[in-house]
Structure prediction request, 487 residues.
Amino acid sequence: MTKKVAVIGSGIGGIATAIRLQNKGYEVSIFESNNYLGGKLSEITIGNYRFDAGPSLFTMPEYVDELFRISNKDPKDYFTYQRLPNICNYFWDDRTRLEANADPAVFAQEIESKLNVKAEIIEKYLDQSKRNYGILGGLFVEQSLHKWSTWFSSKAMKGYLNIFNLGLFSTLNKKNEVTFSNPKLVQLFNRYATYNGSDPYQTPATMSIIPHLEYNVGAYFPTKGMNSITKSLIDLAKSIGVKVNLNSPVKEIIVTNGKAVGIKTDTIHNFDVVVSNMDISPTYRKLLPTQPAPEKTLAQPRSGSGLIFYWGIKKNFKELDLHNILFSENYEEEFKYQFSKKDIYNDPTVYINISSKQKLDDAPAGCENWFVLINAPANEGQNWDEIIERTRKNIIAKVKHNLGVDISELIEVEEVLDPRSIELKTSSAQGALYGTSSNNKFAAFFRHPNFSSKIKNLYFVGGSVHPGGGIPLALSSAKIVSEILDN
Ligand code: FAD
Prediction:
C-alpha cells in the first residue's frame, strides 16, 4: 500500500521534501498554517510595488533545477534565472566605492586599484575558499552528520587529513585580518558571516568557504523574482500529485508506541510518516509537548534576525544595483550590539536590495522597490517600536551621507518586518532568520539532525535543522531526508 506522508509547513524545505517524496512513490500532503505558501520565501505587494518578502540572494540554483529533473521535467520550461554580472555595490562613508564584478579576476583588479591589496591575494583567497568548500561541502552540507556512515566515508577522510587548513581553530575576522592588510577588505569578507546570521568575530574561519559560492559558482536572480522559486515549485508539487492545504495549522504530532502516526489540525489525520518543516524549537514545544525534548540542542543560541523596511521610492538611483551595502564605520561594535547588547547599533550596515533593477515591473516607472535590511538580534522582548523608530532615522541619515539624497520625502509606501513579526508569520523561534547561529566551531554538530532518534517515522527539514539556514541548505535538508527515509 502507498505510504502517506504529512509535511508540516510550506517553507522551501517543506516543498522540496514533498516533491522528492512524491517522486519516490509516497502520497504527500502539505499542511500550511498561513493563507499563503513559502514561509520566509514569499512576496508582498504594497500599492504598485512588489517585494520579495525574505531572501534576496540566490545561489546554487542547481538545487532547484534538480527538483524539476527528478520529476522528469525540463527546469527551463518552468523556472528561469540569470547569473548576475555584478554581485554587489559596496559603499563606505569616506566615499570609497567598489563594484564586485562576478568575474573574480576583474573583482580582484578593482580591489587592487581601489584598496591597494594585490589582486593575487584575492585570487588566492577565493581559490582556498573553493578548495575548502570542496572538502567540507560534501560532508557538512550534503549528508546527515548524525549517521556513522558519514564519518567513515571518503569525504570525511579528506576532511580529517585537512583538519588544520579548514579554519576551525580561528575566527573569520582573524583569518581576514591576517590575509588582507586593508580594513575595508577585512570588513567586506567578514560580511559573509551574516549569510547564516553569525558574527564574524566569533564564527570560525571555516565560513570563508561562502565567498566561493558567490564569486566562483555565481550569484543569480530568478527572472520572475525570488518568489518564483516558491511559485514554480508549488506548481510542480501540485502537478505530480502533492496535496496542499492552506490555513491548516498543525496543533500536534500524534505519537503512539514511539512512532509518529499522524497529525492533528482541527481533526486527526493518520499518516505513516511525518516531516516537520516548522522550526525545531516550536516543533518540540508545541507539537510534541509530552515527548522528551533535546534540551541542549534547543538551548543553542539563535542566529541573527533582521529588521526590514519595504520602501517604494519615487526616484531612480543610478549608483545602486540589485544588491548594495552601505558599511558601518565600526563593524566590530555593530556585532557587539547585535549579539551581546541585543540591540541595533546607531551606525548600522545597510543592505539595500532593489529587485526592480532586474524585474522592471516590480516598481512604477521612475521608481524603485527598496528592501532595506539591517542585521538585528533575535527577539528577546526588546522595545522594538523604539528600535525601529531610531533605526529608521539612522538608515535615512546613512543613505543621505552616502548617496547625497534625503529619501524621507521619497518613500511612497512602507511596511516593516521585525523579529517579532518574523516569528509570528513563520513560527521561527525568536524571529531568527537561519535557525541557530554558527558562532562557535561546534555549532554544526549541535544543530538538530534531520530525523528523530526517539520517535520512529518523524523527520525534520528546513533552516533550523541540519545543515542550516539559507535556501540552498534548506533544499539540501530535504534531499538528506528523502535519502535517509529510504534506508
Ligand atoms: P520557513 O520559510 O521557515 O517556513 C516554515 C513554514 O512552516 C511557514 O510557512 C510556516 O507558516 C509553516 N508552519 C510553521 N508551523 C506550522 C504549523 N504548526 N502548521 C502548519 N504550518 C506551519 N536565505 C538565502 O538563501 N538568501 C537570502 O538572501 C536570505 N535572506 C533572508 C532575508 C530574510 C528577511 C529572511 C526572513 C530570511 C532570509 N534567508 C535567506 C533565509 C531563508 O529565507 C530561509 O533559510 C529559508 O527560506 C527557510 O526555509 P524553511 O524551509 O526553513 O521554512
